[in-house]
Amino acid sequence: TIAIVEVENLHKHFKQKSSLVKAVNGVSFTLYEGETFGLVGESGCGKSTTGEVLLQLTKQTSGIVKYKGRDVTSFSKKELKNWRKDVQIVFQDPYSSLNPKKNVGWILNEPLRIHQIGNRATRFEKVLRTLEDVGLDASYLERFPHELSGGQRQRVAIASAIILDPVFIVIDEGVSALDVSVQAQILNLLKELQRKYKLTYLFISHDLNVVQYFCDRIAVMYLGEIVEIGKTEEISAAPKHPYAEALFSAIPMHDEDDRRIVLEGDLPDPSNPPSGCPFHTRCAYALEICRSEKPIARSVGDGTHKVSCHLSVPVTCRNLSKTEQ
Ligand code: SF4
Ligand code: MG
């Protein structure tokens, strides 16, 4: 498997009023060709900022982002512009990304024009083919974003993301604003396009139902850090980190002892995160050491599944014998 994006110890801190918000605080992961990798967590945990830094829409404070082995954080302007053809983003609300004053034909032609691809005739061909790729046809060319349904708008946003034949797409809450039935259609479309064009997706979402269905692997983020990373089915069936356990307990599972873990307290202020383990202020299992020492990621299972927690016996195993530790 080919590594498409490698993120190493990424930090993004920014000033807000008089404090320093640590939006992304030491995140590392690798995205492999053709996979869908989910970033999950409550709003404000740093998922979107991570996606933006990956695409260099905002600069990291420190750390490295590699694309096919090359460090994009040191790209020149020209290299960045060239690279932009390969990487795209789809947002929750296509209203913010689609120019309301332009029709669909213009919107889809624009990236081709900017990157000086083909001539008028070949560009028009490409626009038509891409419209078909997303389940629309030539009758949409003259329509404006406000004349489309939410699902159709998202199809146009996806068309404009794939029209330059990208390799990697960040989908930031890409279906969160849609009705459940339309969500399913858009997710199926994304899957189809992924197979057809070998796309690699970073799927940012707070909706675990969607993530479980759509992602091959996931990383659970809390206060700018990844607390658990691994295969979706492994984590959703048996989360090992107390925060992941709480998150996944909130969605209905099929077994009898459906117990929902309600987290005590609010998400701490990201400009003043707790010492030690960032989750210790809300963790039902917290130990003395959790307040002072930050846990480091360690492998559980086959080595690709990693957890950042001091517990020597992970939570899902603890349910079997509550008296341990
Ligand atoms: Fe809870 Fe401690 Fe594990 Fe953090 S390190 S999740 S506080 S048990
Ligand atoms: Mg977000």
Automatic annotation (TrEMBL):
GO biological processes: peptide transport; transmembrane transport
Please name one Pfam family that this protein belongs to: ABC_tran
Q: Which GO terms describe its molecular function?
A: ATP binding; ATP hydrolysis activity
The record's section on SUPFAM superfamilies has: P-loop containing nucleoside triphosphate hydrolases
SMART domains this protein is in?
Answer: AAA (SM00382)
Q: Which domain of life is it from?
A: Bacteria
Residues in ABC transporter domain copies: 5-248
User: Which InterPro entries has this protein been placed in?
Assistant: AAA+_ATPase, ABC_transp_ATP-bind, ABC_transporter-like_ATP-bd, ABC_transporter-like_CS, Oligopep_ABC_C, P-loop_NTPase
Q: Which UniProt keywords apply?
A: ATP-binding, Nucleotide-binding, Transport
Which PROSITE patterns does the annotation name? ABC_TRANSPORTER_1, ABC_TRANSPORTER_2
* Similarity remark: Belongs to the ABC transporter superfamily.
- What name is this protein filed under? ATP-binding cassette domain-containing protein
